[in-house]
C-alpha cells in the first residue's frame, strides 16, 4: 500500500478516535450536537495543522529571513534608490539575483503529511457541514 494512503488512513483513524472522545466528554448536549461539534472541531484542527505545515515547509520563513538579511546588509541610500528605480535593467538584475529556493527544504514525505492533514480535515469539516444542513 502507498505511504500516502497509509498516512491518510492513520490520520482518519486518529480523528475518529478524537471525535469519539469528544462524544464522551461533552455529555450535557444531545448526541447529534456533540457529533457535529466533534467532527467540525477535529476537521478545523486538522486543516489548521495542515496549513501550518504548508507555510512552514513551503519556505515562507526562509524567504522572509532572506529579505530581511538583504535589507539590513544593504546601505540605506542604495536600497532606497533601488526601490524607486524603475528601469528595466534594475528589474532584470533583481529577478536574476540568487534567491533561496522556497521548496528545497520540503521533502516528499513532508508534502505528503501536509496534504494528508488538509485532506482529512476537509473531509471531516465537509461531512459536518452536510450533516448540519441535512438535520437542521
UniProtKB/TrEMBL annotation:
Domain named DUF3899: residues: 37-132
Alphabetical UniProt keywords: Membrane, Transmembrane, Transmembrane helix
Name of a matching Pfam family: DUF3899
Entry annotated with the keyword Protein biosynthesis: no
Transmembrane segments: 7-25, 31-61, 117-135
InterPro entries associated with the record: DUF3899
Protein name as it appears in the record: DUF3899 domain-containing protein
Native source organism of the sequence: Pullulanibacillus pueri
Lineage: Bacteria, Bacillati, Bacillota, Bacilli, Bacillales
